[in-house]
Amino acid sequence: MRVLHVETGRHLYGGALQVRYLMEGLARRGIANVLVCPQGAAIAEGAGAYCERVLPLPMGGDLDLKFILRLLRVMRQVQPDVVHLHSRRGADVLGGLAARWAGVPAVLSRRVDNPEPAPWARVKYRLFHRVITISEAIRAVLIHEGVTPRRVVCVPSAVDTERYRPVCERAWFQEAFGLEEYEKTVGVVAQLIPRKGHRHLLAAIPGIIQAEPRVRFLFFGQGPLEAELRARIQEEGLAGHVALMGFRDDLERVLPCLDLLVHPAEMEGLGVSLLQAASCGVPLVGARAGGVPEIIGEDAGVLVPPGDPPALERAVVDLLKDPERRARLGAAGRRRVQARFSIDAMVEGNLRVYQEVLGAAPGRG
Questions:
Q1: Cross-referenced InterPro entries, in alphabetical order (predicted)?
Q2: Which of 23, 110, 257, 304 could cross-link to 168 by cystine, CB 3.0-4.6 Å?
Q3: What integer pLDDT is reported at residue 64 of this predicted model?
């Protein structure tokens, strides 16, 4: 079997990292991978170890109609059995049209829970033999919008539990982030965009500091809200407790040393940073949004209503004051990740979808 993967992300985190995990796992199972990605994309580095070919293409977004022709030429050249479209922006509709015209079965990964107009969703998703959602919450959104249930399959995202382990280099951590030995640390790992809900945590932080003065908040990630968040931190006198740390590619060293990870998102497909933190044995506080409850459940952390700073404050303070509960939740979170979100389970789930699609072709299943 040869699978043509289309990934439009330029950075190797989030969805692009899941694509790499998938291609590596498929290659170990004897599947041939061909990768189409933007020129200069990080996912292309080292991809020759698990891809037959890596084909950088110009990708101009949803309005780049010529991308259809470029992708169509690639399909005719490499003759894939299945096309797997991993990105929404600039790849889903255009890639689906190219696959339809090439006569190749197409599978789409859906990683976000953003609602779409129901009439559009019913038409759009008919381009694909299957839509793979990374959470049951996203699957429910699509079915609610009128997509045929048998067309939508949930295969959760995965985390590398060997890379993300509960082993903290305490001296390095304190030196790297300028921390005192007695300080507790709360992390946030998310793009700096509105739907990740950083503002809700900032609203809760003064009350948290009042209850737990020796606490430091580290915000990891980058995005268009950086200047706005930085200004708010200064204006509200939080600079001594809150720091924007930017993007880090060594989270496997950072996460195990956190006392707590908070994810105050208003919308979230699943939350890879939550999986990584849970794999490191870190207790979680998350908003009850999208697929977040599927990670936290009843035993790996605390769920709060989205957009509710007082609830965030109570949950964080309660956990910071209770080290035994933090340890218990962290251990349960790692067990949960190992059981439900392994790379092998994710690869096998996607492979089953390919096999079902090929068994159903040329129909639309």
A1: Glyco_trans_1, Glyco_trans_4-like_N, Glycosyltransferase_grp1
A2: 257
A3: 85
What amino acid occupies position 300? Answer: A
> How far, in Å, CA of 149 to CA of 151, rounded?
5
User: In the chain, where are the structural domains located?
Assistant: 2-158+342-360, 170-340
CATH number among 3.40.1350.10, 3.30.930.10, 3.40.50.2000, 3.20.20.70, domain 2-158+342-360? 3.40.50.2000
* HSE-up of residue 44 (Cα within 13 Å, Cβ side): 15
With 0-12 CB in 10 A as exposed, 13-18 as middle and 19+ as buried, what is 81? middle
* C-beta of residue 230 within 8 angstroms of C-beta of residue 219: no
Distance CA 59, CA 194 (A): 25
273-299 mean pLDDT: 94
Q: At 110, phi and psi to the nearest 5?
A: -115, 115
Domain spanning 170-340, CATH architecture: 3-Layer(aba) Sandwich (3.40)
* Rounded CA separation 365/359 (Å): 9
Q: What's the whole-number mean pLDDT along residues 302-307?
A: 97
94-112 confidence digits (pLDDT tens): 999 999 999 999 999 999 8
